[in-house]
Amino acid sequence: DGTKVSDATLMEVLLMNDFKLVINDTAYSVSPPVKDKLSSEHATEMEDIKSLVHRLFVALHLEDHQIRKERELLQKLDHLKGELLPLEQMKARITDSADAKTSRLLWVGLALMSTQGGALAWLTWWVYSWDIMEPVTYFITYGSAMAFYAYFVLTKQDYIYPQAKDRQFLHYFYRKSKKQRFNVERYNKLKDDLAEVFKS
């Protein structure tokens, strides 16, 4: 009747109902004989035999299956490693560059803070007095608090130094990746596939 049937469909299932068989444009009506219902004892014996046959089949063919599967996985592993190697080298270069820029930024921040501290000390003890410099330091502190609050508003994170460093590293990393046409999504997918193969 135009219904598709899987290769794995058992003949018992096909013979449960009447059907038409078409051979060389000739249609034959097929009415399979009605099967007697098996007794529960006979059905249990049949199930035991099926189970035994299945266990024997697995025992005899399991090693071949495992060897074939292992060979497939090793080929896939080699293929993935071959694809990942140039990406790993490019990622290492980008990571080194982003790490160097992040470290430079941290050292510049330290230098600016040191310069600011020195300038405030010089102005306080040699040029002016504390009475004049106190409001200046207050506004510098207040401005720093505003800058940290602006950071929180923009990033939805507290200004914690390790997190800020990681954020800056990722910023440099993605910018450099875009410039060098390094496909981060493809790299991550290949790494996930590799981990899945190792797991298998």
UniProtKB/TrEMBL annotation:
Calcium uniporter protein C-terminal domain residues: 13-190
Keyword Glycoprotein (UniProt): no
Main location class: membrane
Membrane topology note: Multi-pass membrane protein
GO biological process, one term: mitochondrial calcium ion homeostasis
Membrane-spanning parts: 105-124, 136-154
One GO CC term on file: uniplex complex
Keywords, sorted A to Z: Calcium, Calcium channel, Calcium transport, Ion channel, Ion transport, Membrane, Mitochondrion, Mitochondrion inner membrane, Transmembrane, Transmembrane helix, Transport
Location within or outside the cell: Membrane; Mitochondrion inner membrane
Gene Ontology terms for molecular function: calcium channel activity; calcium channel inhibitor activity; uniporter activity
Domain notes: The selectivity filter, in which calcium ions are arranged in single file, is composed of two acidic rings separated by one helical turn along the central axis of the channel pore.
Family listed: Belongs to the MCU (TC 1.A.77) family.
Function: Mitochondrial inner membrane calcium uniporter that mediates calcium uptake into mitochondria. Mitochondrial calcium homeostasis plays key roles in cellular physiology and regulates cell bioenergetics, cytoplasmic calcium signals and activation of cell death pathways.
Protein name per the record: Calcium uniporter protein
Gene name in the database record: Mcub
